[in-house]
Amino acid sequence: MGKSLLEQLPGIVAAGKRQAAQILEQLEGRNRVTLQTRELVIPSKDTANFDLFRQAQQTEAGGDITSSGERLNRLIYGDNLLAMAALLAGDEETPSFRGKVDLIYIDPPFDSKADYRTSITLPGTKIDQKPTVLEQFAYSDTWSDGTASYLAMITPRLVLMRELLAETGSIFVHLDWHVGHYVKIVLDEIFGRENFTNDIVWWYYNKMQGNIKRFPSNHDMIMFYRKSSEFTFNPQKEQRDKPVRQIKRIWSSEKKAIVNAKDENGKVIYIDSTHRTVDDVWRLSMLQPADRTENLRFNTQKPETLLERIISATTDEGALVADFFIGSGTTAAVAERLGRRWIASDLGKPAAMITRKRLIDQDANPFLYQAIGDYQVEQARSTLGRSFRVGDLAKVVLDLFGALPLPPEDNVNGSLGRLPNSRTLVFADSPSKLTTISTLRRAQGYRDSKLGGFDKVTVLGWNFSAGIGQDIASLQDPKLEVLVIPPDLLDRLKKKGLDKLAGEVRFSSLQYLEAAVTSRKNVADGEELAVDLRNYILLSPEAINLDEKNRSALQKVMNDEPLTLIEYWAVDPDYDGEVFRSVWQDYRGNTENESDPLRVVTTAWLQLPRKEVPRRVCVRAVDVFGFESEVVVDGVEVDR
């Protein structure tokens, strides 16, 4: 008989603390984790608004985007363990956030029976996408060891959260009966029993009916801890259902106690009380299906009133709030509205996409959209060991693709292989590099020179440069194929092992966006730029986690109306090749630009300050599955 969970718990906590300690030790090393800025989002739902450019200039006043980076809010896509490591490490552009966060709220997944598949509505059809392995780990606790694995996941993350918290900071951990009591023990160990403040009951009076075997479940628990005895706390009041007549109480400096207030005649003073001090039972309604203003139909979404109370009670204006399991982005949205700074992170691409749209929709201040720099390298270190070599990983990728390695004397860093019974060369690029047009030309050279020459070369890449689709088209080489290595490959390797994955991994074709600048002309108060979306070619449908029925429905949409697959697109009219500054955005559901919620507008009209030099315009799009594409148009002149 195996050990009980109670017997396993000390070992789980010890292992989690060791894992966190190793991460903390590597913060200063050359292998430290970094954040890569994918987009500076300057929200604009009004496409003819000069204010957004003034806002962008104010954001960068006194220096460039990187030197002011600490002041910008940030939305981070990726494993929150790596995101927190990067925030703690800091870099030459952004100082460390160690001890800088005033409040952390997390609502980690806890329902082992939840089905977190994504339902995508397209014109004429609805597609159910199963989550990737990466997202399954984030959104459901269906790990092999159940609750033990859940506790092993949460422990090192809680240790890093404590490192991020200011000495006066607080943390709220939102759970329910599945794992809440076990996590309470872990929290006591990490934050100290003396810093436990409240076990808050969120009673959402959903009027759920019980059955003959048990009482209905109508509450969650939110555990409130402080980092130290110094803290910020603002008592909260809520309105009573009806006024209550009660004795007025005041502080007596003479008696050093709270006493009954009396008038000049010595009579006790009564007042009609319309509000009560909030206690540790919070009677706040869940989101209702009929709520069209706030409800984003995101599984486990929490109401803004809940976060308003937490943020208002434990922070002051200007404080920094963080959430590392953001879901639909409620914490960031409320922090923004209440004048707090925020950091929001999630491993699920749908969560990141919904949050970005939500913040744009509420006209948030400019914020950074970031990803884990060299994410695959970090995953490779986790899977293959910190001292892994790129050649080791290339061999794994070639094996999964079905290629045999070339002889050592002809094998560049172990990255070249050949398909059996074929004159096809295979080149597996490094996860620490971008696959660029130079990479493709090098692969062409290998094809023509290695072992007397090959008929074809297939390039397998992890990360691609902006405009790679354009580059592939410009080469006009039918003997060159470019495929995408699945981004969750290393997580799947860690979970299943190489042998079990053989034959299961699909390498997909690269998605490709077609867009053009159709006009640039001077107008009375500046200039006007028009950008058209022309076409979108999705990567191989076989690479998306769909069943056959849904894959067939997707293929029809791809053939009939490919632009309906675009979820979000943005334009940077002055792209510098490094930071994408989106000053115009549109997305499905933004009916202010287009009345059809299932389609984006296909022409962007930008009203810009006048410039006397050519513009370099970058268009970036994200499809409904979270895949990104870019087009860069250089040398855009004013129409003559």
From TrEMBL:
Source organism, top-level taxon: Bacteria
Keyword Nucleotide-binding (UniProt): no
SUPFAM superfamilies: S-adenosyl-L-methionine-dependent methyltransferases
GO MF, any single term: methyltransferase activity
Location of the DNA methylase N-4/N-6 domain: 101-349
GO annotation, biological process: methylation
Keyword Lyase in record: no
Record keywords, A-Z: Methyltransferase, S-adenosyl-L-methionine, Transferase
InterPro entries: DNA_methylase_N4/N6 (IPR002941), DNA_methylase_N6_adenine_CS (IPR002052), N4/N6-MTase_EcoPI_Mod-like (IPR002295), SAM-dependent_MTases_sf (IPR029063)
Similarity comment: Belongs to the N(4)/N(6)-methyltransferase family.
The protein's name in its UniProt record: DNA methyltransferase
Organism for this UniProt entry: Streptomyces boetiae
